[in-house]
Amino acid sequence: MIAEAIKTKSPSRSYTSTRNACKLCAPFGACIVFRGISGCIPLIHGSQGCSTYIRRYGISHFREPIDIASSNFTESTAIFGGRDNLELALSNVTRQYKPEAIGVTSTCLSETIGENVPMYIAQYEKDRSEREKNGGSKEPALFYASTPSYRGTHMDGFHEAIYSVVSKLAGTSVASENVEEPKHLNLISGFVSSEDLRELHKILSSFEMPYTLLPDYSESLDGGSWEEYQKLPKGGTPLESIRRMSSAVGTITLGESIPREHDASAWLESNFGVKAARVPMPIGIENTDAFFSQLTEFTGRPISQKWMDVRGRLIDAYIDGHKYCFGKKAIVYGEEDFVLAICSFLSELGIEPVLVATGAVSDSFKSRILSILKKNRSEPLVMDDADFVTMLEKAKDLSPDFVMGSSKGFYLAKNLEIPLIRCGFPIHDRMGGHRILHLGYRGTLNLFDLVCNTLMQIKQSSSKIGYTYI
Amino acid sequence: MDHDENMAVDTEEFKSEMLTRYPAKVAKKRKRQIVINQVDAGEQVPEILANSRTIPGILTMRGCSYAGCKGVVLGPTRDILQITHGPIGCGFYSWSTRRNQTRPETPDSPNYMTYAMSTDLQEDEIIFGGEKKLKAAIDEAVALFHPKAIGIFATCPVGLIGDDVHAVAREMEAKYPDINIFGFSCEGYKGVSQSAGHHVANNKVFTDVVGLDDTPKPGKFRFNILGEYNIGGDAFEIERIVAACGITLHSTFSGNSNYQEFISAHTVDLNTVMCHRSINYLAEMMEIKYGIPWFKVNFVGADATAKSLRKIAAFFGDKALMEQTEKVIEAEMVAVRKVRDEVKARCQGKKVMLFVGGSRAHHYQELFDEMGMETIAAGYEFAHRDDYEGRKVLPNILVDADSRNIEELKVEKDPERYKARKSEEEMEKMKTEGFTFNDYRGMMTEMKDKALIIDDLNHYEMEKLIEKYHPDVICAGVKEKYVVQKQGIPLKQLHSYDYMGPYAGFVGAINFYREIDRLVHSKVFKLTKAPWQDSPELTANYGWTN
User: Fold this and answer.
1) Residue B463 with chain A: CB contacts under 8 Å
2) Domains present along chain A, CATH in parentheses
3) In a domain? residue B13
4) SS3 labels along B286-342
5) Cβ A67–B59 below 8 Å, yes or no?
6) Measuring CA to CA, how many Å separate B186 from each of B163, B200, B201, B407, B441?
């Protein structure tokens, strides 16, 4: 058979080619992280098309300006190397934007020709400390995420960028040595919506302990209109806050699929003894409970009554809406951690995910999903390294009731003639994709209403009588 | 000083002010890319530096060669199965369900535009080569669809790891002799912008696709439109109009097109060119090889549409056709005038800037003119000098290393298929009567003196332009849209039309008048300022707590 001619990485893959991919390339994820750091501009080391495509794609979801610089490779750069281009790009970006930081990412192009970017950056930094000594103005911090798009997905780029920022900055605060610091906490959010980040701020604030939320594009990728031009939209995790992550009481990471070598919390733990806790994305009651418990454990403070009240309303809603949900079948796809959390949530409602897919290659995805869905009455089909055409081929026999995930599932839902409940990333065929709230008790309640109302809509519109009470 | 002189002092001052912020080397280059327009006798305009490398770190609007080849030129063809050979990013981002529309002949006719196939190269293949995987992908494409044609598009790493997409295409074509398989060396780093990719696409379509089937479409007056990509349904509107006139649109390159139309495109008697930048190569080559004359048309703007229709009808020289064309124009213009008059009364005198594409920044000035709106600054992303200054400068354009990397095909007359569409005498007669062929006058010759012409505009310059001129509307792309709109100025996307349209032809003109009217008069942009921002005392009073 054709597929066997090539070694495939995942047993769930029946085709060698990828047909309608369920993943983006690694530099994309890194750019989103860099835009979530205060005063930081991403710079892609490669041909300018990468920066243009990634900007265009990100903008179509966020509907916000996303500036990403490029080192603009040409054919001669591809042959002779991109060091001069990178240095020129760094100096031009510094001059134009006066950024606090520049986040450099590599590309398949610069990685293929074997560019030693860390060495270039180290040399650039060395030269500029000379410049600064000679009276030059302070230059931006530089981060580097190695993100060849032939390795992993946008989530690998996302985690890599966080790791690069934390491992570069944490522990370098000059102020920390003399001043008694108040206890503080780290939270690494994973790839969530701008609204989710705002919700995390509310949750963290309620524990009355200072915190660092990384990344934080709640404002920088979802801002208001401007009174005057902003070179880089305000908002983002402050650099000083990242420097102090090394002295936090602990780091909570949302999501469990981060490879250990790119896990910033593990790095903080082994280098500075900052306790690391990974919890699932807080979607659904069980996951959110785990998140809140972890917050209590690290801060030593109780969960505020207002969250307990929301939790109570959520349980109440689950009970009220259970009859619409129980036994329904869903297709869920997207980033690994997002899918794990959505499955946990759906399972609480008695909805059975029948097809669960991620575009990432992952050894542990299937076992994790099966453990979450152990109460499913039939075993779900779980696919890593999945694409949308394969999903459609497999879904046809599973009689699902709805599809849950990003806009990219549109054709899947259209072909199956079932609704698509839009959540996650990307959403470019509806307004406010970046304002969808998924996380915490309130996020779960929002998703619950979406799911329930979709199912009620089906019931209502498929009845010929015209019930107004469903 | 009158208005024009005022503007002249302003633009000169503005230009130098903008340049002083650049380091000397950058300023030296940008100085030649920013020109103040001046149209002298014989349509002489100042020289502009275009199609030159973007300076690293300067935020450009430009894309890459792959985007120009796969995304722009070939993407809108529905039944050539397209495989992106490379890591996943490029194939994902160019998934064609965004702006180009298409209308398959029957519900069962193939349409692969919603299908994004990629070899999704992994690290092992970058090290050991990806040709084997590409072959497997082609096998799969054949097993799934058995398409008439397969196009392979190379992304950045492909050439560098030694994969030869052309050799794979030949080998697989030998395996599947009834399928036309061809590759494009459109690695992203080639050339200075997507323009390089257009050229790569033109060359391959010319050598491997056009001319394979001599069956013409029925019709007495048959022509092609090159460089029309059916964004927002533009090609549908143009086809509706020309059909009403009695003219057969054989093929557009490449909006709403199919493979059969491409392979028989050489059977027409006339090629017209919409987007000069992206496709003039194909028009030139088809003229040399097959004897098909070409001229530039513009279906953006109702008057421009009427003018283009008249020229096409005059080319065929048929009295009945010309009469019918006049009837169509007259009938269509009734509705156009009604809306235009209404909208013009409100929009007259408003100022616009266009920074887009390689032709659109020119074409859309027609529509704004019709509404009484003035274009005060314009520029292209990826055009060459001839798109600014007109084709008369072609012999003087220096070919630099970046352009030399894109192959120039040597084209000769086809011994069997070459047929002069008009005799030399006829052509000469038409020319002496003022009929132009192989013509493009460029954007600058049609713009007012003192207007600012800026090639490859960047973010910093956009910010300066807004600050200085406060335009009423800006036309550009999605990357510029939100940064401009955050400042309370409406931005109309002319790459994707904001998923609206059509804007070509007569119905398109009406749509565009209404759209611009909506944008410049919408209340939402005025809401950006809260009432207390206008009266500082009010906020002060609220803050006073004595």
Assistant:
1) 229, 231
2) 26-157 (3.40.50.1980), 175-304 (3.40.50.1980), 306-462 (3.40.50.1980)
3) no
4) HHHHHCCCEEECCCECHHHHHHHHHHHHHHHCCHHHHHHHHHHHHHHHHHHHHHHHH
5) yes
6) 13, 7, 8, 11, 29
Instruction: Render each residue's pLDDT in chain A as its tens digit; 470 residues.
Output: 333 444 445 666 789 999 999 999 999 999 999 999 999 999 999 999 999 999 999 999 999 999 999 999 999 999 999 999 999 999 999 988 999 999 999 999 999 999 999 999 999 999 988 887 877 778 899 999 999 999 999 999 999 999 999 999 999 987 655 567 899 999 999 999 999 999 999 999 999 999 999 999 999 999 998 888 888 999 999 999 999 999 999 999 999 999 988 999 999 999 999 999 999 999 999 999 999 999 999 999 999 999 999 999 999 999 999 999 999 999 999 999 999 999 999 999 999 999 999 999 999 999 999 999 998 888 999 999 999 999 999 999 999 999 999 999 999 999 999 999 999 999 999 999 999 999 999 999 999 999 999 999 999 999 888 888 88
Cis peptide before B536 (omega within 30 of 0): no
CB B179 within 8 A of CB B150: yes
Residue B23, preceding bond cis, omega within 30 degrees?
no
CA pair distance A32, A17, nearest whole angstrom: 27
Q: Is residue B511 part of a domain?
A: no
List residues bridging with B253 in a β-sheet: B226
Look at the block and give the residue holding tokens 């009355």: A208
Residue B203: Cβ-neighbour burial (10 angstroms; 0-12, 13-18, 19+): buried
State which residue of chain A sits closest to B94, comparing Cα positions: A53
Nearest to B160 among A25, A112, A223 (CB): A112
Query: With a threshold of 0.90, does the pTM exceed it?
Result: yes
Using CA of residue A255, residue A258, residue A260, residue A264, what is the dihedral sign? negative
Rounded Cα distance between A375 and A357, Å, is: 18
- Whether B525 is in a domain gets the answer no
CA B546 to chain CA centroid, Å, is 63
B67 is catalytic: yes
Q: Which of left, alpha, beta for B51 (phi over 0: left; psi -120 to 50: alpha)?
A: left
Q: How many CB atoms lie within 10 A of CB B229?
A: 25
State the nearest Cα–Cα gap between A235 and chain B, in angstroms. Answer: 15
Identity of the amino acid at A290: A
The residue among A66, A108, A142 with the most chain B CBs within 10 A of its CB, best to mutate, is: A108
- The answer to whether residues B240 and B230 touch, using CB atoms and an 8 Å cutoff, is no
CB contact under 8 A, A49 and B466: no
Report pLDDT digits (tens) over B27-72. 999 999 999 999 999 999 999 999 999 999 988 999 999 999 999 9
- CATH code of B72's domain: 3.40.50.1980
Which residues have CB under 8 Å from B440's CB, separation 6+? B273, B276, B280, B296, B386, B387, B390, B391
Number of structural domains chain B divides into: 1
List of chain B residues whose C-beta atoms are within 8 Å of the C-beta of residue A67: 59, 459, 483
Q: What is the DSSP letter of A180?
A: P
Q: Which two tokens stand for residue A6?
A: 């090539």
Domain that holds residue B109: 65-191
Active site residue B98: yes
Q: Which two tokens stand for residue B284?
A: 């030139």
| Domain contains B505 | no
